[in-house]
Specification:
By secondary structure, the protein is of the alpha+beta class. The chain contains 12 helices and 16 strands. The strands form 4 sheets. An 8-stranded mixed beta sheet has the order 3-2-8-9-10-11-1-12, with helices on both faces. The chain has a 4-stranded antiparallel beta sheet with strand order 7-6-14-13, with no helix packed on it. The protein has a two-stranded antiparallel sheet with strand order 4-5. The two termini are 34 Å apart.
């Protein structure tokens, strides 16, 4: 089944809890139930001094006892409570790498006596469980569903995926999901929702019939009204402790009215146009196509790879690039993300995860740039619509 925006879902939909919340003493039994359902589990783990997404064989591989310190251009791990697996914030990777891989083989061709034999490389669906999806990333998956959901390769990957969401109780210094229109709690889009409690137990609820069926295989205890309230209070508290905010204005109008603002030149003096912000962004989806051959010319392949609007060749047309200045490329990215994305897809392209802030090598902060633009008079009065 596919939603009106092209996003695959179950027959029950992904519209919030199906059954009442229960308590889990830990996550081992949930991992066992997911594996018994034929799922490969992808989730966070500690690798090379960062929280990355990888295949997990057991709950013990989750980043228990690790927290993150995140600021503009800064990301580091520090020790925390060994009972807790989800006191960290977003790492450099997002679930985009699973649903929309950075490098994807489209087809290959081999020379034969009759000419060339072309083999189409269809995307193979995998029964995956995405474990530990935060609310911002859940919204980002929804954005990708909207943008790419009608594409056969994306839809094939998305169709067999079960999502285990985890509500945030410890926001990071670069987080601004609340002012980006979201919040630390998962409301829709998940199959199973978890809230980690201070003692290392979990409040769990099902968001779909499929999630409910998995939870039914896990030993649980009934959750009291006090359990539900305390979990909700922890998530609500996180919403008041965001590290960043966006200006409380219509950002689409703000950006359309500041196309010639001096702020673009200011940021261009700092920006390296490295494209890190687009690579770590959970919603950036641009790609390029590359054809390769072996040395004999008997075998050829076509690959789809992630591309960045910060790449000078990205806007190349006959005669040269359309956006050949750093200021123009940064303006294009920020204006699309917060402004013209609305024209294309009816929503913002930003979910407030803060990855672009943390992983910018020179610490450029999108929220600070937008606040700066908001202090300047408009350079044009043209209606963005």
């Amino acid at each position: 089944m596919v939603t009106e925006h092209g996003s695959p879902t179950t027959d029950a939909g992904r519209d919030g809890p199906v059954d009442g919340p229960v308590l889990l003493s830990g996550l081992d039994d949930l991992f066992t139930a997911l594996h018994a359902d034929g799922r490969t589990i992808i989730g966070p783990a500690v690798r090379e001094h960062a929280i990355v997404l990888t295949e997990l064989g057991s709950a013990s591989q989750l980043p228990y006892g690790w927290q993150t310190e995140v600021e503009a251009g800064t990301y580091r791990l520090r020790r925390g409570d060994d009972r807790l697996a989800f006191t960290h914030t977003s790492g450099p990777q997002s679930w985009k790498q699973v649903l929309h891989p950075p490098r994807d083989l489209l087809w290959s061709a081999d020379r034969s006596e009759e000419g060339f034999r072309v083999t189409d490389q269809a995307a193979e669906p995998r029964r995956l469980a995405l474990f530990g999806v935060r609310s911002c990333d859940l919204r980002a998956i929804g954005v990708l569903d909207h943008v790419l959901g009608d594409g056969g390769r994306y839809a094939a990957r998305r169709a067999e995926i079960l999502i285990v969401a985890v509500n945030c109780t410890e926001p990071g210094g670069a987080c601004f999901c609340v002012s980006a229109g979201g919040g630390p709690g998962a409301e829709t889009g998940y199959d199973i929702g978890l809230t980690e409690r201070p003692d290392g137990t979990y409040l769990a609820s099902s968001g779909t019939a499929e999630g409910e069926a998995v939870l039914a295989q896990v030993p649980t205890a009934p959750a009291s009204a006090a359990d539900v309230t305390s979990a909700a209070d922890a998530v609500a508290s996180a919403a008041t402790r965001m590290g960043r905010t966006l200006p409380e204005v219509d950002l689409r109008t703000l950006l359309a009215g500041h196309r010639e603002d001096r702020q673009w030149d200011d940021v261009a003096e700092r920006c390296l146009t490295c494209g890190n912000c687009t690579m770590v962004c959970p919603t950036c989806f641009c790609t390029s196509v590359t054809d390769t051959t072996d040395l004999t010319g008997d075998h050829a392949e076509r690959w789809e790879t992630w591309e960045s609007c910060f790449d000078l060749d990205f806007s190349y047309l006959h005669g040269g690039p359309v956006r050949n200045s750093r200021a123009g490329r940064y303006r294009q990215w920020l204006t699309h993300k917060f402004g013209t994305w609305h024209d294309q897809f009816g929503e913002s392209g930003c979910v407030g995860c803060g990855r672009c802030i943390a992983w910018c090598p020179v610490g450029i902060d999108v929220t600070a740039e937008l606040h700066a633009l908001n202090t300047h008079p408009p350079t044009t009065t043209e209606d963005p619509r």
